[in-house]
Each structure stands twice: as C-alpha cells, then as structure tokens.
Amino acid sequence: QIRHKNRIESDSAGFDCLVGNPPYVRVEFLELALKKYLKTHFVSVVDRCDIYVAFVELGLRLIQGDRYCGVIVSNQFLNTDYGAPLRNLLAGKDALKRLVDLNPLQVFEGAITYPAVMICSSSPTSEMEVLAMERKAEGASSPARDTQMFARYCHEVVTVPSASFYDSEVWSALRVTGGGEMSLDMLSGVSLGDLCNISSSMKSGRDQILVATLLDETDETFEIKSSKQDKRLTVSKQVWRKVLRPKNLREDRTIVPASRVVFWPYRDDDNQDEFVLIEEREVRALCSETFSYLAKYRKDLENRRDSGKTWKEHNRVWYSLGRIGKPSDYNGPKLLSPGEFVTPRFVRDESNDLFPCARILGVSSIAVDVNALQKYLNSKPIERWFRANLPAKVGGYRGMSVGDLARLPVPHKTHPVWSKLKQSDSDAESVIESWITAQLASK
Question: 84, 156, 199, 335: which could join 346 in a potential S-S bond, CB 3.0 to 4.6 Å?
C-alpha cells in the first residue's frame, strides 16, 4: 500500500511492503550507458554482477518504518565475489529477516535459476530464520508446484544470530546433507586454496586474431592458420605458445596435445613470478611475419574493450593480451579441470601450455603430492561436494570458478591422508570417506 500522505517527507515516503521477482540479467549484457548508471547509483552493482542485486538495494531504500521487502532472486549472491557488496549492505542494516534457499527445486519451468526467497525488514533484526532445501537427487529439476512436493525437500526452519550468518560469509556453512549431518564444508578449516595456486589465467581479448590453429611445428617455429585469413603463416615460438582447450582434457583423464596456439608477446621474469611484455620493435625483429599479420588488425586490437573502455583508452599496448596470469600458473606438474563439466575431472599436465580464462582452471604450486591430490579431487566423496555446491545448469552442466574450487575443504598438508593416497590406488575412496567420518565424529 502506497502511503499517500506526506509522501515527500523522508520519514513517511515509500512503501509498507514490496513483493517482487526482479529480472536476472548479467550487467555485462547491458548497454554501456545503463551499466555506468547502475554502477554509479548502486553500491551493490560491481564487476559482472546480476542486476537483481540493484533491485534488492532499491527495495531496501523504498520500505519505511517497520515494513518488509520480499523478493525471489538467484541465490548466487550468497557465495560469489559479486555478491559481497549486497551481503555487506544487508549486514550493515541487519535487514535480512528470513531466507529460503529453494535449490535444488526449480520453480520456473524451462529455466534453471538457483532461486532463493529473501524477506528483508527496514527495522534491524538480531536474528534471522533460515530454511534450507535438501540437496537430494542429482538432477532434481522438475518445477515445485504443490506443497506436498515442496515439503519433501524441506528441513526445519533454523533461527540463527544475524551476526553469525554474515560473519560466516559463505552460505554453504549452513547447508546440511540429506541425512541431516553437517556438510563437507564444516569439516576442516583448511581449503584447497591453502594448499596450492588456483588460476584461470589467459584471455586474449580477440581470439579471431590472436588465437590460431596449429598445422605443424619445428624446434623453432609453428605453422598456423587464423580464422581471419586463409593464408598459412610460419611464426616463431618466441612469440607464440600452445594453448589447451576443454576438449583437450579427456574423460579418461588424459590430455590430447594442444592443437591451438596464441600470440604471446611475453617473457618470464622468474625472480618476480611475472610476465614482462616484449617491446614492439623486438616483436618485429623476432618474427616479422607475425608482426605484419597483426599490423593489419591494429585498429581492431586497439578497440578491444575491458571494463567499458578500449585498449587505447586504457593506454594499453595495442598487441598486449587481456589477461596473462603469472608463470607459476602454467608450470607443471599441475592439475587442469574444465570450468564446465557434468562429472568433475582433474587431469595431470606436465607441460607449460597455457589455458583459457574461465574455460579451464589450473591447480599449480601444489604443497602435497600431485597424484594424491588428483585422487582426492576425482573421488566420489568430493564429487558429492561439487554436486551440492555447484548447481546444475541447463543440460546438466555445472560451472566452477576459481573461488568455488579454492574453498573446497581438504585435509591439512601434513595430514596422513595425503601419504595414504600417494601409496594406494585401490582404496582411495575409503581413505577419504574415513577422513570425513572422523571429522564428523570430532564435531
């Protein structure tokens, strides 16, 4: 109900109650002017967030007195980097009164949306109610249209102090398994990010120009063909490097040799663990054919965009790449995993080949035995963690980010689990299950 009287006064303007289903649209898909407006006027709109966060922030502004705002949104803001500003906003106002995480139920037919219902109050609340939906069967995706089906997935409402929820920061800390036990997220204070370097590092900014098919190679050169022209080029390995793609990581956890190369105008500075850009005159001297080819597309490369600005506006060197990572990201031995998968698979890679941003994740600089970690990550118990924490997309695929993988719970690097996994192939599953059981018992 709109308050009609004294609407212009700050203490009475606004609404008694707001109820809505905001649109779910990634901010990078918006026009540049609208993107700038949202990022200027809403503290919750950052990076590549979804614009529903702005609707939640606006709802908090519009309710007055002891009033409520209830919305159904994606639950992704609960554990993503882009959701941090919205979580901080809710924490600062103590606004979140009830949270119902509907995952894995799908309430919208034909769309997988990871839905959650938020009830926010304009009056600070010291406690909040949490209703978690059970993550039962793999692929549970039929719409929840009746209360009986809804009830089958429900756990009891849990009342928690608001401060503890916000401090935990990650929604998975409140999750429970179908059997009512604590989830793997509660088992250990150590996460995979504590044991190794996790990266998703290489982005050219214009693959049609800077990435090419590998036709042949010698000790010093590649013979390539780009999608921009039919002509075959012979280029120097000093400024081109092989790059793996998800299709190179086979289901049997072996690697098909790279069939693509990327222009790579960098050399390693091993003392600083960083790449140093090769100067333009040196690129020309090292490989004149490469330079002549790139020069044809100089304007296209200068007009690449990042964060709304072109390379030229950023004062970036026209032939530099969008993201490059650091040498330790690529040094073998490392483990590689597709960023999207049906069943998780981590493949051992001994090469120094590059891999594309977001499409492949790399695990390098590993503090435990590499083979032991590979067994751990490919095990059935850990697959259950991926299924619980990475909701299925259309087609059954799951998307995994660097942050998702970094927070995977693991034993401490000195724990005997690692030596047992190193020594045995046959009982890796039981070793991991025993560790989980012991951790649960200690809790």
Answer: 335
